[in-house]
Amino acid sequence: MLKNRFFPLSLIAVAVLAGCSSMPRTNPTLATATSNYESARTNPQVTKLAPLELQDAGNAVSKAQAASAKGDDAATVDQLAYIAKQKVAIAEEVAKQKNAEQEVANIGAERNQVRLQARTAEADAAQQTADQRAAELKTESARTEEAKTQLALSQQEGDRKDAALTTAEAKAAQDQALIDQQDEQLKALHARKTDRGMVVTLGDVLFNTDQASLSAGGINNARKLAEFMSKYPQRNVIIEGNTDSRGSESHNQALSERRADAVKNALVDMGISSDRITARGLGESSPVATNDSATGRQLNRRVEIIFPEGSTSANSTR
Amino acid sequence: MSKNNTPPELITGLQRIGLAFAVTLLMAGCASTPAPTAQMAVAKVEVNNAMSAGGNEYAPVQLKAAMEELNGAEKAMAAENYEQARAMAERAEVDAKLAAATARSAKAQKAAETVKADVQVLRNELDRKQQ
Question: Domain map of chain A by residue range?
Fold first, then answer.
């Protein structure tokens, strides 16, 4: 009878034990979930950045563990453990996402900083280049100005020189015209052109025999010379007296000098400045013909009046 | 011999409770569940979210798992295997959530890498110019 009283109780016990439950044993999914949760829980990134998801995962792990401890069937524990494992993974992913977003924000600021630095450096470099260019331009501009001035100056110089040249050319033409004119006139005086200049020869007949005084013809010639010389005040003369070889050299020397002086004095008397006249005697030293014939000797007895080329008052020695 | 009927006086208060307990247990353990339509809906929503979040590109493995679970759940629903349908739908939901989280985190990490690389390039440029 006692056995019968306890029968329903034992029936209950068996039912509880052998019913839809299983003996609690280590569930691999639950073990994984629990260990993963432990890692996440001790990861500062996860605790800081995904606290809500971590808590949700923790709750899921507890629920699975409770089911296991309670002795729920394997399928139930598996299901709860799987869900818990996935929720731990979700918490970890959310933490990674938030961390990356923070990095983007931080590095974004850093990138802007670096960009600003780069732009500033660029701007500075550009400024430097611009300043350099401006300085170069300034130098170039100064150089150009200088060159312009130089050009203007040299142009002025050139113009001046041109003008001077023109003037000189005109003067030279003028002088030449004058010389030509004079040469014509001297030719009228029977002057001939030699390498010493124009030469007028006063022959022997123009002097009194063996004397230094000029004959009437001589004086006439002297007058023509004086006219010429007063017309052209720049021209100077050299008067050279010559004799034939009759008589002594010293006698002839003295005579030639006296004759040259006679011509000089005649010119001076006619108003020509003695500064313009050089008179000298060459004696018998410079014959133009043979002394062996009378004709020759007569030719040698002469006074030559030389108008040197280029002889002007500027060249004469005072 | 007389019939061995359980005389009412044998069922004491304790035994009554115990019996009720056992019945409850049996019922709880082996009871049939209603169709998990709400859970199915939730699972579908989460799978769509995961696709929108770029799960295809950034979390293909997790998304595939979620979609397979969802398919299984739908088949179980059709077969009126509601226990299995609920369980699979729950797994589909959590798998889809994980796929979405993985996709978002992958995108954010990619963006961080890009920005880091940009800064490095800029730094190199700056250093080169300042040489």
Answer: 22-108, 181-307
Question: Cα separation of B7 and B47, whole Å?
Answer: 60
Give the tokens for residue A93.
Answer: 């992913």
Residue A97: CB atoms within 10 A of its CB come to 21
- CB atoms inside a 10 Å sphere around CB B58: 19
Q: Are B116 and A82 a contacting pair at CB < 8 A? A: no
Whether the per-residue pLDDT at B8 is higher than 70: the answer is no
pTM of the complete model: 0.48
Four-point Cα dihedral A289, A295, A301, A305, nearest 10: -70
In this structure, are strands A277-281 and A237-242 parallel, antiparallel, or unpaired? parallel
Tokens read off for B69: 């679970």
What is the radius of gyration, based on Cα positions, of chain B?
29
Contacts of A97 (CB under 8 A, 6+ apart): B101, B104, B105, B108, B109
How many C-alpha atoms does A13 have within 13 Å on its Cβ side? 5
Report the alpha-carbon distance of residue B131 to residue B124 in Å, rounded: 11
Per-residue CA distances from A296 to A200, A206, A287, A289, B22 (Å): 18, 16, 9, 5, 192
CATH of the domain spanning A181-307, picked from 3.30.450.50, 3.30.1330.60, 3.40.50.2000, 3.30.1360.60: 3.30.1330.60
- H helices of chain A, in order, are 2-18, 28-41, 44-49, 51-70, 74-188, 216-231, 249-269, 294-300
A180-199, pLDDT tens digit by residue? 888 888 887 788 888 889 99
Spatial separation of the C-alpha atoms in residues B7 and B10, rounded to whole Å: 6
Going from N- to C-terminal start, the domains of chain B cover 36-129
Question: Which residues 97-156 on chain A approach chain B with CB closer than 8 angstroms?
Answer: 97-98, 100-101, 103-104, 107-108, 110-111, 114-115, 117-118, 121-122, 125
Closest chain A residue to B127, measured at CA: A118
Please state the ipTM of this predicted complex.
0.75
Q: B43 and B70 in contact (C-beta within 8 Å)?
A: yes
